[in-house]
User: What shape does this take?
Amino acid sequence: MGGHFQDILDSLPEKPARSRLEPYRELIEELRRRGRTFREIAHILAERCYLETAASTIHDFIRTRSQRAQRSPRRSSNGTKNRCPWPPL
Assistant: This one.
């Protein structure tokens, strides 16, 4: 991909999250840190927040956010992106 196209892609902001679980993200993350299962979290959300959701939905929500955090480009101190030390496959 040409440098000009990459500059355009890099300049675009990320789209905001569209998950209905987003308002409960901090609660879900803290419950996971405290050792709660996805099924227990789904039960807590249903009972305390009146939000019916499946344990698999919570799992996918957490997995997506952790992947996004790992993917986000990091900038070095001089403002350029760190490059992967090996070539892509």
Remarks:
- The longest helix spans residues 55-71.
